[in-house]
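user: can you give me the structure for this one chain? tokens are fine.
assistant: on it. calling the predictor now.
[tool input]
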Amino acid sequence: MTIRRAGFALSAAMLAASTLPAFAVELPPCPADNGGPCDEAANTLVADVIARFEKANGEEQVQAALALVDLVAQYRNRLSERNAFSADTGLWIYFRDDRDPGDADYQRVTNKMRGYATRAAAAKDVESELFFLDWMSLGLSYEERLAHARLIHRRAAEHGLLTTSPARSARVSLEIYGRELLEQGRYAEVARALDDTYAELEAAGMTVDNWELQLRYAEALNLVRRDEESDRAFDALLVMLAGPEYNDYQRQFANNQISYYRNIAGRFAAAEGPGRIAATEGERLQGREDIGTQKSRYNFALALLGQGKAEESLPYFEEALPIQLAAERGGGWYDAKTDTIILLTTLARARAQVKGREADGLTAAIDAADRLRQRREAGLATDDANPAVAALAKAVARGTRRNPQSGAFDMVMFAGWAARNQDSAMDQAFLAAQDLTLTDAGDAINQAAARNLAGTGSLGELVRQRQDTAQAVVSLNQRYRDMALGKDEAKAGALRSELDAAAARLAPLDARIAAEFPDYATLVTPKAIDVAAVQALLEPDEAVLMLLPSEGHHYAFAISKQGARWHRFDDGAAPVAADVARLKCRIDENTCSLPDYDALVAAEDKGGPSPIDKRYPRYDRAAAWRLYQRLIAPVAAALPEGGRIYTVASGPVAGLPLAALVASEPEGEAESGAEADLAATDWLAKHYRFVTLPSVSALALASRESGALPASRRPDLVAYGAPTLVGNGKAGARGADGTLRKRGGVGVRGGGLTLASGDKTMASVDKLRKLDPLPGTVTELTRLSAAIARGGGVRLGRDATETAVKADRELPRAIAVVFATHGLLPGEMGTGSEPGLVLTPPGKASATDDGLLTASEAAALSLSARWVVLSACNTATPGVEAGASGESLSSLARSFLYAGAGNLLASHWRVADDATAALTVEALANKDATPATALALAMEAVRTGKRADGSVVEGWQPHWAHPASWAPFTLVTNRDR
């Protein structure tokens, strides 16, 4: 389409910027003064382009949109009010058509607007910059919009323009997109964005005049549990709404939201008052049958239910359900499906607590959970005309573990226990428990299995490339979210570009895998499997033991070939966590709370002194017996004696090897430090061989995976240890004779660490060098090499570098891979740092070698090892890194699973040199046993000083009878082969 106006033409520069093959617009630059034929011609031309734009489709419409942006850029201040409104409305409608935000065509238009905003900023024309930043908002992807609104508001604040239309529009956007992010569970991001916005308004001497923004801020504060601030914000909202410019409907809605959000925070008594007002006013204003009224009545009833008034609350929920289902069938602008899940979940809770309605409660909970599963699967099946946008959405959906509706799964377990006499109750609860415990560790083992099935050829390489790219997308997305809300726009922009580029790379990989490996999606996103399916996968001497906390209770499921049991320890989550913390304190004093430390000191005053006291705190066998009674004993009938037990644990108990629990009431003083008392203890390790399973569904992968490379073509061992370190001169060599127990953990790997303040992506080589040297690892690896590799395969000291690891051609083929060194927890090398393994620091840190093999770098390795041993401290237990909550393993451990470890040995605490060396040698040298059996026999040998054949373990010491010596490692695998 060509538009002509005799005698007028755009400047050559503007034409070059437009690059419009379908549009040629001729109009000379208008003179500086307003009015006259130039303004008339400009408005006529803009009106013509708008009219044609509104009728166009496809590429023609894109070109019209680009032309319209150019015309508005040149003549914005000359446009009539009608044309300005039409241009803005036209593009607003364009950005809201049936394509997804962030669509490639939208990006072309928004990039044009972004270009004009950038030029205006360079010319210090802030008003024009804000205009174009505001205009482009709706063309952005949902992921970008909150940060973009913050950019506009921040720029307006910097130039004293908070009363302008773009600033007001930004505040509206912050409210709208803040609500969407709150619904996704991204509370901290919204609170941070609105904290900064309110601070800018306060600095400018302005008050908020947008009641919905005030409501959103109060909601965000409530969800991040800043309760006092939230209450003040809600009170300010009600004062605002008391003004004559507001109406009863807005006041009723506000009271309903206050009740709703206080209920979410568990503040039921505080929710009851506003809930009662909202319910009463809703019925007066809108009638009983209105869905809005029913939501208000629901929130009031939930406040009652939360205070233990189940029978009083139940009629409200029962009345609301058919009205809610009708609203869902009728569609509408709000997310009725989410509301249905929430209502069914709460209805199930009320029914489960009313005698005679327990089975109905389970039915409602199952319905809610099924609906939530459908929503999750729909998110993973996201499609878009732009493959890069679809690929990004799918990757981000996979990277999101839980959403606010995940309580539906908790409710299946809660209602299932109330209706446990129903035949289906355990099966449904077991499925829901698996949905609650989706973990990155489970993902890692699923993806490694997919690569195994794809083989070592081109398909395997394609799968690895796709998985690595998807991991990068998830990581970049999180980093972009964090950076975009800050003030460093350059870094945020660079991350956004990097994220877009990764998504673009991911799209063709997804397409190829879908064509060449159609089973891939099912393999890496397995569904929960029921009890019968688990039993079909188990051998007669095997069982699955699943332990998890939920809503303050603690659940245990035990499934063997012939039987299945489950149990709930009522209100048991806190007592279990307390006992786990107490036992961890009795192994590593660095983990002690003050009360646990006081109890530790008191324990050492009981009974006679013991040589073990010089090495370890007194182990509390009574606490270990309590944990067994509460978690294992009620389901032990389904666990085969002497069998292989696959454990799937989440919460605090995941950080304690079950082998260190006690299966019979301990005799004598429960906190005795005597070697004889420890030796006489009925440790759970004597009854079962434990294997940590990252997810129940991972059990099904073992039967599908292809065989390993022939052993004849593979090196027996590749081991790295004893990095060159100088220490600080204050701590003795760890594990050496005469090294005694001291506060702070001298003599264990990880001791003597000075915290660094370096960047999270780069370790401080100077700090690494000050770690204590580890001569004990030389003994460990030398003995291991002699036992399994004819003296070869060991890289020590100056050869144990990060560069060497990454370049090692034998590493991908090795049967056993061992790292014996310091293991650093997240945060120990700087704020936000990853966990890692210390290697010999280089002279100067670089991006590829800073002396710390981090979790992300470990994930990039390619392994096929039967054994991978992380003989270092705390390599299994999740730390404080983002996302660790609910995980069963550290990001370091799951990175080695992702890299291809067949059987991973990782530690749950700070391990000591002497016993660790014996333990790893005993386990790996036993080539005739499966890994689980080899580890069980190794623990027995270290604990007692004798092997199964009666031979004596070299160098055995009495303190090896303490669980700190023999029980630090967990075996992680989906195939004990």
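assistant: here you go. Residues 1-24, 729-749, 751-760, 880-886 have pLDDT under 50 and may be disordered. DSSP finds 37 helices and 14 strands in the chain.
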